[in-house]
Design brief:
Largest sheet: none
Number of strands: 0
Number of helices: 3
Order of helices and strands: HHH
Distance between the termini: 42 Å
Length: 88
């Protein structure tokens, strides 16, 4: 049963366009980044979550990389839209 689900998921993914896959990836990353930002707010603003300074540093670093990745995916989506508009 699990193998059938895996094959079906792979087939659904294969039927998506590159734009759809990038959009999906972008949306999932945005959701994870939003969750990380909410958690960091609890650590640094609300003081309702407690982690070590080292872990806080790594999470801030992770947030920076995730934001850069999100920005890159946004640029790719903009390029897809521009190419569609220009008829490429």
């Amino acid at each position: 049963m699990q193998l059938e689900k895996l094959y079906k998921m792979e087939e659904e993914q294969a039927n998506k366009t590159v734009y759809e896959r990038v959009k999906e990836e972008r949306d999932e990353l945005k959701e994870r980044l939003d969750k990380l930002n909410r958690f960091l707010d609890k650590v640094f603003i609300e003081h309702t979550a407690f982690i070590s300074e080292t872990q806080a540093h790594y999470l801030k670093e992770q947030r920076e990389y995730m934001q850069g990745y999100l920005d890159t995916l946004d640029k790719r989506l903009e390029d897809f839209a521009r190419a569609e508009w220009e008829g490429r």
